Amino acid sequence: MDSYPRQRARTRGFRLGAPRSFSISPDGERVVFLRSRSGTDASTCLWVLDLTSARETCIADPADLLSDAEALPPEERARRERLREVAAGITDYALDRDGHVAVFALSGTPYVVPLDTSIAPAVIDAPGPVIDPRPDPTGTVCAYVSSHALYVAPIGPGSARRLAPSEAVSASDDGQVTWGLADFIAAEEFDRMRGFWWLADGSGLLVERCDASPVDRWWIADPAHPEQAPREHRYPSAGSANADLSLWLVLLQDPSTDATSSTVEVMWDHDAFPYLVHVSVPPQGHPLATVLSRDQRTQVILEIDPVSGDTRVLREREDPAWVEAAPGTPTRTPDGRLVEVVADRECDTYRLVVDDQPVSPVGLQVEAVIEAGATDVLVVASADPITPSLHRISYAGEVTRVRGTIGEADTYGMVHGRRAAGVLLTSTTTLDSTATTVDVWRGEDHLATIESLAETPLITPRVQVFTVGERHVRTGVIFPADHVPGSRRLPVIMSPYGGPHARMMLAAGLSFGTDQWLADQGYCVIVADGRGTPGRGPAWDRSVRGDLASPALEDQVAALEAVAEMFPRDIDTSRVGIRGWSFGGYLAALAVLRRPDVFHAAVAGAPVTEWRLYDTGYTERYLGLPQEEPENYDRSSLLPLAANLTRPLLIIHGLADDNVVVAHTLHLSSALLAAGRPHAVLPLTGVTHMTPQEVVAENLLRAEVDFFGEALRGGRD
Question: Hey, which of 305, 309, 459, 608 would disulfide with 586, CB 3.0 to 4.6 Å?
């Protein structure tokens, strides 16, 4: 008989079979998307939805194109790790400007397929396995990365030719230099997965050159296979050297012949601004690049001349804590105005700004820009962090929430999507449902619904939402499905993430499936988004500057105490466990080390234990440089707290994790052992930072339940 843990594992968290990665053709006639053929099929296909007939057609299926098992180049495996990609097959694609052809890579081979015919995908010439193939705007040639170099190849007959490095700039290139790939920090911390960009007219490309040789050399080993050599991994830990980055303008004489006319470096002060955060090529105006200082307190937006490579500063932003670029920004309006999202500290609001003028109202937190149109900007925003949704904000400041298929009776729902050519695609979720509904609209007319083939979870979460404590912490409470209020006092499991960049309290029932299953094992599960989690404004985010431990932990305690007051006959605060992964794992371990009076057991998955071992981009944003502000690292570290452990602690870590390396767990375990503190460590062979799949994932959940069942059996101590 199937179980929820088994179902969740084999469906990869119910992501298989769900449509994603949507594009709307410039003529407004088609929607392109990715989807596997069932809720248990990990091989993702490329689909086209014809908006005239509302018919879906699979135009590229890995089963038809691959004769052997999928074999990925190392760069593609790294890209998928940074994206936390759990599927196989076609996991990304790119269209030409007019939406006539799609290009994708499958098992390292580049393919092209027309969107408006029944012609099968054709192979594009390549010297070896490729990553990130992208057609030029005209659909004539395709650029991609192979063996750390940038190539361009005809879409049709003809041979590929290397563009970068050219002979003029290759003298210093060695095994640590890449062209056209996003560097580790850009991909992991700045959500920039690309390393090259076509100019709007196809006359050339902007290309990132990354020299990782200054970065410390770490090694990722597989102890279960001692016959295998460790894998080298360049990891920039806090306070250490980052990769040397530069941006180059590569111009083509004739795109059809691949010949280069010049290779010019795009210049800025690299010492002052070492991070290349974002590059965009709007259809109108010159390309834009966003660069950032090492301390992340100063951000500069550069305009790049697409002929000479010269730059000029368009905007400079400063913040005493840090500056962040919202997804989709900076960009331009059709008439060339600059669109940004700016942290307005005076009114504590992330505001949409057009040519330095705020156009969104105070209190509406703008999180991302989807499209800047002729009359308005489509953004993701919310007044409540639980319900980030699409909003249209006119240039006159009028705000309209896009409801998608949220019904009037739905208290909590959110809508994301895409817009182009007068067509709007909405992806709708609600708190009381595990379904995601994808609809396509033209004005008020509903054109089609894109079918989801994902399995329906065996569990439907029942989440009660509260705003608790003096800081109004958004909190979810989940009881067993069969719980009768006041009938028994249940042990508690806190299930947070609790840190920057991610929130758990969202209007999407599917995200609470595991919490409901845990609750059904006889627990009250509490999910709380404290200070530092997104969606509450600049002051809320920046309250963790200098201390990643205290605010996050205090807000978990506050949420627990508030829920206990609301349900005095339903929860037992003498039996409280806490669980989490990544930052959530850090928070779980922190809880039993610092507040054993409140938390009685913890499961810490892939925890950061010593922030000096975590990467520069994330850690230095919140704690500064360890050479300059060591006290911030000391107060946020778990290692000095090892002697405090008096509660059961289970630490879980993947041995192949190249983000939170297993050294974090080993250092904490050694400190606990030195202090004579019993604990348990569960190593996961071959598992990265992504939660493991299939049988391991299923059994991990069961292991957690068994651990909490034993650890919380007594209570009242």
Answer: 608
Amino acid at 608: V
Predicted confidence (pLDDT) per residue in 495-548, tens digit:
999 999 899 999 999 999 999 999 999 999 999 999 999 999 999 999 999 999
Query: Helix crossing, 550-566 with 583-594: angle to 10°?
Result: 80
Cα distance between residue 492 and residue 478, in whole Å: 10
Q: How many CA atoms lie within 13 A of 425 on its CB side?
A: 26
Q: Is 583 helix (H, G, I), strand (E, B) or coil?
A: helix
Domain boundaries, the chain: 463-711
- Model pTM greater than 0.90? yes
Burial 198-207 (b: 16+ CB within 10 A, else e): bbbebbbbbb
Of all residues in the chain, what percent carry a pLDDT higher than 70? Answer: 96
Q: Which two tokens stand for residue 700?
A: 């991990």
Contact 593, 644 (CB under 8 A): yes
Strands, sheet with 365-372, edge to edge from the N-terminal-most edge strand: 365-372, 376-382, 389-394, 399-401
Is the distance from CB of 23 to CB of 30 less than 8 angstroms?
no
Strand spans (E) along 560-641: 571-581, 601-605
Strands 437-442, 445-450: pairing is antiparallel
**Residue 298 burial class via C-beta count within 10 angstroms: exposed 0-12, middle 13-18, buried 19 and up:** middle
User: What DSSP element (H or E) covers 278?
Assistant: strand 275-280
**Is 457's pLDDT higher than 80?**
yes
Q: 651 — phi, psi (to 5°)? A: -110, 130
Contact 390, 379 (CB under 8 A): yes
Helix (H, G, I), strand (E, B) or coil at 226: coil
Whole-angstrom distance, CA of residue 662 vs CA of residue 431:
35
Bridge partner residues of 220 (DSSP): 231
DSSP 14-60: TTTT--EEEEE-TTSSEEEEEEESSTT--EEEEEEEETTTTEEEEEE
Q: Which of 247, 259, 306, 246 is nearest to 163 (CA)?
A: 259
Q: Does residue 536 contact residue 621 with C-beta atoms inside 8 Å?
A: no
Q: What gap in Å lies between CA 415 and CA 391, rounded to an integer?
A: 9
Q: Is 312 exposed, middle or buried (0-12, 13-18, 19+ CB in 10 A)?
A: exposed
- SS3 (DSSP) at 476: strand
Q: What share of the chain is helix, strand, coil (3-state, %, to 5)?
A: 20, 35, 45
- DSSP characters over 181-201: B--HHHHHHS---BSEEE-TT
Residue tagged 């500063």 (tokens)? 313
Torsion angle, CA of 581/587/588/594, rounded to 10 degrees?
160
Checking phi first, is residue 518 left (phi over 0); if not, alpha (psi -120 to 50) or beta? alpha
Which amino acid, residue 600? H
Q: Is 414 exposed, middle or buried (CB count within 10 Å of its CB: 0-12, 13-18, 19+)?
A: buried
State which CATH number among 2.40.50.40, 3.10.290.10, 3.40.190.120, 3.40.50.1820 fits the domain covering 463-711: 3.40.50.1820
Q: Which of these ranges, 15-29, 161-175, 325-339, 356-370, has the smallest mean pLDDT?
A: 161-175
Give the length of the chain. 717
**DSSP 8-state assignment for residue 642:** G
What is the SS3 assignment for 613? Answer: helix
CA distance 575 to 651: 19
pLDDT confidence of residue 670:
98
Q: Which residues have C-beta within 8 Å of that of residue 631, sequence separation ≥ 6?
A: none
Assess contact for 370 and 379: CB atoms under 8 A. Answer: yes
Of all residues in the chain, the percent with pLDDT exceeding 90 is: 87
